[in-house]
GH15 family glucan-1,4-alpha-glucosidase (Glycomyces lechevalierae), 637 residues
Amino acid sequence: MATDPAAGRPIGDYALLSDRRCAALVSPDGSIDWFCRPRFDSPAVYGRLLDPDAGHWSIHPAGEYRSERAYIGDTFVLRTVFNTPTGTAHLIDALALGPSIEAETGVRLRLASRAPRATLRVLECTEGEVTIDFEFRPRPEYGLVSPVFTNVPGGILATGGPVRFVLTCPVPLDFSGDGTTARFVLHQGEKLRFATQSAGLADDPPTAWTPEAVDAALEETLIGWQTWSDAHPLWDGPLPHLVRRSVLVLEALRYQPTGAIVAAPTTSLPEAIGAGRNWDYRYVWIRDASFTIQALAAAGSTDEAIKFFEFITRAAAQYHPQNPLQIMFGVGGEHELSERELAHLRGWRGSRPVRIGNAAWLQPQLDVYGELLDAAWQVWPHLTHLDAAARRFLTGVADAAADQWGRPDQGIWEMRGPPRHYTYSKLMCWVALDRAVKHAEVIEVEQRDAMIFGPDIFASRELAPEDFSPVKLIPGWAAARDRIREAIEEHAWKPGIGAFGAAFDGEDLDASLLLLPAVGFLPGDDPRVISTVDVIAERLRDDRGLILRYEPGLDGLDGEEGSFVMCTFWLAQAFALTGRPDLALKAFHEAAACANDLGLMSEEIDTATGEMLGNYPQAFSHIGLINAAVAIRDAAR
């Protein structure tokens, strides 16, 4: 039986649908409770995920039933099976991808490049008879708009707000004040096709589809996803089914027109219930770049990795080395992502506020320099050309790392408290300069005067121009890189706890330091690395074996967040790189157990209940699974 939407259905109950422009979340009750159109970050049309009155579209049996679900093959076409006392019905859900082949030329098209902006739902009774309840209640603009419904040939038209929807519907509907409903009986062998299409106010509304058109669109979608998956190599490491699904999730979260990958398709699913830790993740973080590209390359998605790298460099290209690099962008490359609250929405399980936009776009985070240049390092063998503007931009990124590494910042976790000298930020500035030195000939750094780098606050004197080559940047980058290493080894190593600390001040821990061997700063057999991994595993690990990002009480926010799935995969990766494969595999399986029955993972796990928390599905978690699997496989070899 359908769950009361006001109770806040568990996050892990939802399935993901995608047409690589937007995403939908579907419950086991056959209800689409989250859907933003026309982009991942557009206002929600169905928002029951965050408020019972914010819109949904449900198709499920009346009375008692049990449901089970699975994706069809390696696709995002979902089959939900409803078992009732009187019969069985199957519901197939998908966001239409459009054709995979150009009909006239036979040329293969980019996946979803001609997506028709249509939601497909096909209901079939396979045994006995089933009474079905149908509700179509779109609420554009995050639930603010109650559309006006009118009959059109083959269905209804919903008008209100900036988008109009045509519902293809083969059954008669009852119109109420806030939506449309129906109850009907489906007998064995009967099949009904439903679809919605959208159009802007300036466009003519689309016409309802025929049953044949819905079937054809569904077949195109199945073929599109499966063909894309088949074009990628099979995984020969641990948990191949979860690795394969994780690769598919990254493609599902990739915005087709630009190649951008959103961190998650949702906003304001809380990191702690009722604590205000609710953020909008429907954007693209530079922080994720090197991890994402590493995962895509390992999975054989080289073209996708290059496209993502090109998006990041183009979106960030308006940049001056003396100013902090913006850390995140919209899926179209937008820079202005101002945060605001939607006071009319109650939030998931009452977790207010619901936020759209993300104020972190204004934060300085020095780690992004390393993640960007490390991403370049990983895709470089596959880049056939790099234009002059891109070369100047990457040179400027290296300059910025050399100039700014000594400043405090908000760190990788976007702390909203006072800035600190975070070790991970310094580490990634080291990575930026290390990769820049190695890339220098390819970047074709011009012979010019080196920039005059700022004061070194960790030295007894200010750096002078003679510390850097006046002829080429390369020696200057190398000198700054070496000074960062000295500073980290002097100020971040905490003998009292036997680990590298979260920041140069204090002795608190941060799980990001599990990446010390992964980025090549120190080898895996260095005693300080092994000790750091062990101390983090002891002090930041919960009873389920999952890892917290950092020690509680230090982020300046109310409540305590859950354990972080990505950090647990980092632990598995660190165990593999420090030569302890058994511990690596154990940590890997503990993190992988966070996936639901469809192989989808959220950002965090409630330490008390084991329930999913945070935005979902979370690209970072799926990236962590792939990269940890690679490290474990390579260690075994």
The longest strand covers residues 118-137. The chain is about 30% helix and 20% strand. The two ends are 49 Å apart (CA to CA). Residues 37 and 211 are 23 Å apart (CA to CA).
